[in-house]
Structures are given as C-alpha cells and as structure tokens.
C-alpha cells in the first residue's frame, strides 16, 4: 500500500521524502524513542504514515494547506487505520496555533519559509528535543554553480540563510546530514 502512495506521488509530481531520507528519519525516531511529532507539510501523508508505523505509541499532528493533498492524505491515513494516531489539519501552518508540546518537529513545507516555521513552532518543542528539516540541498541546487532563474536563486538564498540561522542559533545544536535531499537535526539545549 505504501507502494501505491509512492506511485501516486511520482505520477502527480508530489515531493515526498526520498527513500534514504525517510529511512534516516524513521531510524532517528526509533533510536531516540520519539512519541509525539508535529509535521509541517503533510502532502499526501507518506512521511506521516511512515513515521507512525515505527511504533504503535507514536502520535502525529500534521499540517497541509493544499486541500487536494489533504484529502488524499485523509484517504491514505484511513487505509492504514491510523486516524486515531495521525491528526491532519488542513490550513496554512502560519494560521495554526497549537498548545501541545512535541518531541520532534519535522519541517518539510515551503522551503523559503523554514526560518519562520522554526520560530513559530519552537515554543511547541520540549527541552532537549529535536527539530528536523528536509531539503537543505534542494536537489543539489544549493551547492551548484548552475545558472538559475531569479526565483530559484532567491529560494536557494533563503535555504542558505536557514542553514546559517541554524549554525548560529545557540539555543540548539545542529548537525547536517548529507542524506536524501539534505537533512538537519537541531537539538534544543
Ligand atoms: N512531508 C511530505 C512531503 C511534503 S511536500 C512527505 O515527505 O511525504 C511539502 C508540502 O508542504 C506541500 O504539500 C505543500 O502544499 C505544503 N506546504 C507548503 N507550505 C505550507 C504552509 N505554509 N502550511 C501548510 N502546508 C504547506
Ligand atoms: Mg521534503
């Protein structure tokens, strides 16, 4: 059934996590015994389902602004009977106010906005816990010298700013992993 989600993503060009990236993420969740997760950017529920399947005590809140993707995610989550453990919210994450505290916040939404997501939701992170961000390499473009469109150059600059923001943020210890499309793990001090 996960196969079908992967095929759907490919067919409709939905940027779900790459194989080695999702393996890294699920191993991290297992090794660090993480049980409460906030995900920014559900898409069609692939990473949320993968994370939930790590352990039956894992609960996830995941936010998606696109109504079609949200509906597809609802369908997929139901097929895995995970409705009781994955709570999906259809809204722009910047409109969502949560009181819950999480052991992991996974940022995988609009790549130009990562700093803003980080600053908005860090209040929902437990001490000594983690913020993980995906796509820091942005398909290799962050480190390439290719000629890019103006929009793409702006996006790459924002991703670089986010990387600097993480490096200079003394409230967190951040490690960058060259896995999948580039993943950071920031541990709150
Ligand atoms: N985590 C998913 C992939 C997410 S793709 C997986 O690996 O399976 C990124 C998603 O973030 C897109 O579907 C996009 O619609 C959503 N997104 C982007 N900006 C957002 C925002 N401000 N609020 C909510 N969702 C957002
Ligand atoms: Mg991603």
What does this structure look like?
The protein has a 7-stranded mixed β-sheet, with helices on both faces. It has helices at residues 2-11, 19-31, 46-52, 67-79, 114-121, 150-167; strands at residues 36-40, 59-64, 86-90, 102-107, 125-134, 172-177, 183-188. The protein contains 6 helices and 7 strands. α5 (114-121) links the parallel β4 and β5. Helix content is 37%, strand content 23%. The radius of gyration is 16 Å and the shape is globular. The termini are far apart. The longest helix is centred in the C-terminal third of the chain and has 18 residues, at 150-167. With 189 residues, the chain is α/β, with parallel strands linked by helices. It has one domain (2-188): Vaccinia Virus protein VP39 (Rossmann fold). Bound molecules: S-adenosyl-L-homocysteine (SAH) and magnesium ion. Residues 15-17, 41, 43, 46-47, 63-66, 69, 92-94, 108-110 line the site of S-adenosyl-L-homocysteine (SAH).
List the helices and strands and how they pair.
Blueprint: H1 2-11, H2 19-31, E1 36-40, H3 46-52, E2 59-64, H4 67-79, E3 86-90, E4 102-107, H5 114-121, E5 125-134, H6 150-167, E6 172-177, E7 183-188
Parallel strand pairs: 1-2, 1-4, 2-3, 4-5
Antiparallel strand pairs: 5-7, 6-7
The structure holds S-adenosyl-L-homocysteine (SAH) and magnesium ion.
Please name the fourth-level CATH homologous superfamily: Vaccinia Virus protein VP39
For the largest beta-sheet, the strand count, sense and barrel status come to: 7 strands, mixed
CATH class: Alpha Beta
What's the number of domains?
A: 1
Overall 3D geometry? Answer: globular
Gap between N and C termini: 39 Å
Helix content: 25-40%
Structural class from helices and strands?
alpha/beta
